[in-house]
Amino acid sequence: MADMRAFRDAVADWAGSEDEGPARESAGRLGERLGVRVAVLLEGPSDVAAVDALAARRGRDPAAEGVCVLSMGGAMNVGRYARLLGPPGLGLRLTGLCDEREWPYYARGLERAGATRHGFFVCAADLEDELIRALGPPRVAELVRAEGDGRALRTFLNQPAQQGRAPQQQLRCFLGTKKGRKIHYGRALVEALEPDQVPTPLAGLLDALLDGLPRSVPDGLPDGLPAEVRGTP
Are 108 and 79 in contact (CB under 8 A)? Predict the structure, then answer.
């Protein structure tokens, strides 16, 4: 695990470096030593927490299987990461998860890097929305209280801006109100899911990632996304 963190750090340094030569060499050496074969491109650390939590529930260790699950620090960075880690760079197999509104960034970035869209999955809004919908707002509110955030949630819900909003919208907004909260609940909500409650995009990603059976996002998506990679309705 520590070695895979070192690889992620090396990739992040490479992505932010103006002189790519030494950074590429360092990341390449680490990746080769660790046997990294797949890079999972995720928008942020809360997505990483959710993917790691579901893998652990299934008794799998992505790092031990040569899979690097990483946060790119935003969807707009996908083109750079696809270039560094995909066919033009280290030649890793790429897979990932993104929000529906961010899919155009993914599609363009993958195309420019000459990478396939196979193995990429799209949430209807974002992963937090998928998890709240899967569990139901009452269960999520119960979990929030159990995690010690009940008072903070009550204060948040009493704000004028939250009046009249749907419970799912309120909870989704609440998760983003404090630094680190989305990361914490990315894991906590996944750990609370029943096996048949796992949102379609997250389940699809784990199936593709760990079982080697990637689904695909077909070429040409001018008017939306195919049902099989969207979030649950």
Answer: yes
Q: Return the SS3 of 69.
A: strand
Q: What is the DSSP letter of 232?
A: P
Give me the phi and psi of 97, to 5 degrees please. Answer: -140, 140
- Please provide the size of the chain in residues: 233
What CA–CA distance (Å, rounded) separates 60 from 51? 11
Q: What confidence tens digit (pLDDT) does each residue in 161-217 have? A: 999 999 999 999 999 999 999 999 999 999 999 999 999 999 999 988 866 544 444
CA-based torsion, 224, 229, 231, 233: positive or negative: positive
- Is 118 in a helix, a strand, or coil? coil
Share of the chain above pLDDT 90, in %: 81
On average, the pLDDT of the chain sits at 89
Q: Helix or strand or coil: residue 3?
A: helix
CA distances from 10 to 5, 36, 233 (A): 9, 13, 38
Alpha carbon of 65 to those of 39, 50, 51, 209: distances in Å? Answer: 11, 18, 14, 10
8 Å CB contact between 222 and 74: no
Chain centroid to CA 32: how far? Answer: 24
Tell me the C-alpha distance between 91 and 93, whole Å.
7
- Stretch (H or E) spanning 182: helix 181-192
What is the biggest distance separating any 2 CA atoms in the chain, rounded to whole angstroms? 54
Which residues are 39's β-sheet partners? 68, 94
pTM of the model: 0.88
